[in-house]
Hints:
The complex is a heterodimer of chains A (262) and B (419). In chain A, the strands form two sheets. Chain A has a two-stranded antiparallel ribbon with strand order 1-2. Chain A is mainly alpha-helical and 262 residues long. In chain A, a hairpin with a 7-residue loop joins strand 3 (176-177) and strand 4 (185-186). Chain A has helices at 3-24, 48-60, 86-94, 126-132, 151-160, 207-222, 226-255, and strands at 97-100, 109-112, 176-177, 185-186. Helices cover 41% and strands 5% of the residues of chain A. Chain B is mostly helical. Chain B folds into two domains: 36-284, Cytochrome Bc1 Complex, Chain C, CATH 1.20.810; 291-397, Orthogonal Bundle (Helix Hairpins). Chain B is 63% helix and 1% strand. Chain B has 16 helices and two strands. Chain B has a two-stranded antiparallel sheet. At the A-B interface, helix 1 and helix 7 of A face helix 4, helix 5, helix 10, helix 14 and helix 15 of B.
Amino acid sequence: xxxxxxxxxxxxxxxxxxxxxxxxxxxxxxxxxxxxxxxxxxxxxxxxxxxxxxxxxxxxxxxxxxxxxxxxxxxxxxxxxxxxxxxxxxxxxxxxxxxxxxxxxxxxxxxxxxxxxxxxxxxxxxxxxxxxxxxxxxxxxxxxxxxxxxxxxxxxxxxxxxxxxxxxxxxxxxxxxxxxxxxxxxxxxxxxxxxxxxxxxxxxxxxxxxxxxxxxxxxxxxxxxxxxxxxxxxxxxxxxxxxxxxxxxxxxxxxxxxxxxx
Amino acid sequence: xxxxxxxxxxxxxxxxxxxxxxxxxxxxxxxxxxxxxxxxxxxxxxxxxxxxxxxxxxxxxxxxxxxxxxxxxxxxxxxxxxxxxxxxxxxxxxxxxxxxxxxxxxxxxxxxxxxxxxxxxxxxxxxxxxxxxxxxxxxxxxxxxxxxxxxxxxxxxxxxxxxxxxxxxxxxxxxxxxxxxxxxxxxxxxxxxxxxxxxxxxxxxxxxxxxxxxxxxxxxxxxxxxxxxxxxxxxxxxxxxxxxxxxxxxxxxxxxxxxxxxxxxxxxxxxxxxxxxxxxxxxxxxxxxxxxxxxxxxxxxxxxxxxxxxxxxxxxxxxxxxxxxxxxxxxxxxxxxxxxxxxxxxxxxxxxxxxxxxxxxxxxxxxxxxxxxxxxxxxxxxxxxxxxxxxxxxxxxxxxxxxxxxxxxxxxxxxxxxx
Lengths: 262, 419
């Protein structure tokens, strides 16, 4: 087959696939908003101040229903995260009561949290969380960003997507309309309202600002290795390119002894 | 095979080599005469060996921290990602490594299909390769189950349920596979055990694959038999080793790109939701490398029929050396087959795409067309084209691939003698 024939065949196939893909994506929910996150791209890093504000939003708003069971308080002070100081981490941990034990008498007891403790969950088990939330499970937020197609953009969009239902859409009690939520129905009431938290750094707590901050925090929670991954990756790829160049030159030299091109 | 006898230089070496000829083996591997015209599609054998060893090494480390229990598996993976030193790196290499392994194996297989490397006298190499491919799919499927996310659980449910299509004993076999009455903790445990076993079986088959290769020697882009060693060959070391290293490094750059900059793009986000037997995901899709077979499975309205066709799609490859009636190996000299080859490539890509889409409407229609064509390619196209096609003139040797004014064997032989 002539090369041009193959190319046109490939082109037609691509068009066909693109067309069917478009047909497929025609659901009821809107395309998520696109945000130019600081952690995007191969050198992306988290905005430290945004992570700290995001933690505040999580702590004061989200954490009353959503657990984050795979994180420890010590993570908040680790490099690449919100990087709270050692004192701040200790204070954050100490602000919760942790059930520990059994002690020598076989009794369970409570004590103030320590940095090594995992984040305290708002409910003692999943069933309790479902019962307290009108039959809907508030998902654990540790890897929530990785568990949704669209990731950070999707989470941000859902927080921004509450509006009145369009005409003809009837909602049961305790169900809310959300432009971006898969299926457009969500059992969580709009969690953020203007100034629901008071930022200590003086940033105006608009819904948009809080949504950005808490999404940044949740992205870090899901991928605490992101900054290290990016910086290591850049070094690894530079190293590989240099090594590849050296090996290429050696290969050319070695193969120059025979009459075949490599 | 090189004919020369190898004698170690040192006395100790000779003593050892007389008892276990490892040094002779080393000399054979170093001198192994390789066609000098191999192109970069021939570098994927080395790349695949690298992939296998990477999976084994990262896998052994992951197994030190992973807990194969339905209640703890998901949390132990998060423990690896968060608390184990460089655990995130090891796990991302392992999970993306599976995809890179399949990417390389598909290139390797399609190279073989284009240049006729499965044909006599290399049928056994081809069949061992297919056994490796089958084991790879089993290992990858079971590995995907281990994190015990939603796709793990439901993927395992769908695939193991396939066996229930077997008449009479299907249900019992499925229960036996599960070790329970549904996919549950016993299933996870045995999948972990087998997932650890299979790579070593693959390693054994790889040794046989290379052994079988070293009997007739490599095929080459021209597809003709060559005299070894001769003007047409180069010693494996340093010529092929350096070239394979160069290709491997290029491959590693792409690999690193996935691991460091988009480690989850090839996976499914649902697998970061812990397994829940009570909630079925909207679309259950396997990993990308199994999608063409998934499309074939779903294109048949009957469950047993779908299962038979899906396995048939793989097993038909085992008889390919006998379905292909053409004496000419390389598609370079087969103008008709070459066109069908590219249509077949597009057909497999399309099936892969349909496997990712819901089985309804236009997708189902296209999947059915693709399935029929897949089998037609092997059952009709390969035998018929091989018999009817007028192939292009074939050169007499690699050193003289192009002959002005078509092939004149006498002329070619004359030219050959001059070299």
